[in-house]
Write a structure and sequence with these properties.
alpha/beta; about 20% strand; about 550 residues; Rossmann fold; 9-stranded mixed sheet; single chain; 6-stranded mixed sheet; elongated
Length: about 550
Amino acid sequence: MPFAILFCTLLFSLWFFSVKANIAHVERLTGNGTEQSPLHIEFVSTGFFGYDHHEPTSLSYNAPAVTTGLQRLRQLYPQHRWTSTFITDPQSPSCPFMPGNVYFMLSQWYYSRRNSSRLSIIVTPACTEGSPMNEFAGAHNILLITSAAADLEIRDRQRSPTWLSTTPFASANAVFCSLLNNLNWTTVFASLDSQEKVVMYHAYAFMRVTTKLTDCGVLFTASKTSYSDDASVRQTLGEFNSKSRVFLYFGQPLGLRILLLAATELGMTKGDHAYLAVVPWSSPAFGYFTWQLNADDDEKVKEAYRSVLLLSLVDEEQYGSQSVRNLAQEWVNISRTAYNNTELPSELPLPVVTATHAAMELAGIAVIEALARNGGLAVGDNGKMLADSIRNRTYPDLQAGLWRISSIGVVLHNIQLASFDWEDGQLKVFMKATEMDLRVQGRETYIWRKTTSKPIWHGRNVLPPAVPVCGLDGAACYSGNHRWIAQAAGSSAAVLVALTGIIGVFAQKFQVQRAVWWILEPQTLSTRNGKASINGSRV
């Protein structure tokens, strides 16, 4: 009898540990491509299709990058299954409607359509809906990579454990602060072209920059001017001449041309004054800054362009590589055949689409590395673990080029500054900046370096100082007829109060004209809440 009990106990122990081992095996998503079964990875992209508003975050532009991302991962890791699902919502036909509906869209997918045997990853451009997406992804431990949207909360690892961003858009106010400090320009004149057709990015950048300049020790005068009115332009130039020698221009190339012609007549394009324009990247949406319009005054404008600097908030060289150019051609072909795109290839929002493709690559690499490291994945979507493995790393060999991810999970940007090369008749880069994984007083930091030894400014290597010709008090140049809106002379609070009227006008315009505004903060837009029905498609 004791022997029978002992024998039964032994059999029970063997059975128990066998079952426990099987359970442990089942509760891991395995798939290293050798002895383990393949893993199915599903990428989910929320958003909308369409070209009506030329919104760079439209899936009509970015779905082709999801496709090429899948192709790349299938090529590199054919032992696994890589698929994608697009989630759209008829109640969200464009960016302003996404924040109020995206949580419902994701919830409906997660609880009614998601296959729990797959590893789910969210890769999507996103407009201003990053916060609700982050809330959903964090609660469900899903890796979320947005290729356009980023938000302050992404810096908080507790609030954003699974959210990363490959956004190509550097913060305009941080870049301006860094550049002006680097050039020792402590007083500037900022002007926004107030014409009705002004691209909203310029209004947004103007607002962001002018409300932050005093925080980095820069005095400024801010003006809103209609550059179609010669009298207003001349009056603005008179005020500028009395306040500074550095003119920050926020507007389209045509407005700068008008400004330069007027400045030429006033003798203000001989090298003593600098006119700094800004673009997110070179694109028809923002216009191309050039003196060549086949107009009678081209030569006069060419001479004036020697006083122009152009700040681009991306490193254009990255998008000129052979690899990205090959991808761009694929994106154009796919968008035409699969998404009925009839736009010119130059209309492609290349930085955003490249960032979407890069996000796909980063996510795929993280999955493969996790499988190799652990021999499998724990049950669930493992979003936090995957996000942690991507943070604080440099990826030199992506198909989309070199990408640096900071410790907080956002791309570290590269910036370029160009001046006019008289011999070639073009604006050429002479200075670049690299963002560091370090924040000073809450701002991003950049290291600037010159990229050429050639003369960059009217045959010289030195840019003009910012102090006005007539001194900081401007007494000798005082015109007696001021149109300026706000002058910061030490108190940032005074600047903010004086700019309230401008910002109020911009907030109203944001509701009407929605071109190129996808990086605006959520509070600048009104959204429509409501339930949505889901339309999905798979690749």
